[in-house]
Amino acid sequence: MRSRTSTWFETKIRYEKMMEDGMQKKVTEQYVVDALSFTEAENTIIEEMSSYISGEMKITDIKPASYGEVFFSDMDSDDKWYKAKLQFITIDEKSEKEKRSNVYYLVQAASLPGAVKHVDEVMGGTMIDYVIASIVETQIMDVFEHHAPGTSKKKEEKNDVPEYEEQPSDPDQQAGAVK
To answer: Would you say the pTM of this structure is higher than 0.85?
Structure first.
């Protein structure tokens, strides 16, 4: 289980999807992207989805997400996304009354009990007193991170060394290389 704090945008994209029976059907799917602005969110979702969609696609909605942190699961079976509302409990020192503040998270899990388990797993390592106020399944299909370490979209490092200055990788060639 890992978590990532960022600025997230919920996007909806409409396109013609090939169904299992071979028919084309117009669908609207929801995705979450990591972006700093609406423009970047739009560019990111178009870039990410263009490899999966042949034909026309239309961005129908982009809005800032109510959560700032996403809990990602390592398990392949965790294929659904749940929105968790947690209430952090603090005590007001002056009035000595209990105060609750709502914080939202997006959690990847296979089921509702799995989402609760993942929230407890992440939050259990903190000193914050909390109550899970609600967890609901969302229609989100996937979450796209921006330049996340260890993702498959990692760009190749650019080699700026001219070929004639490169060192051969073969040790036998290195012995004869001019220095």
So the answer is: no
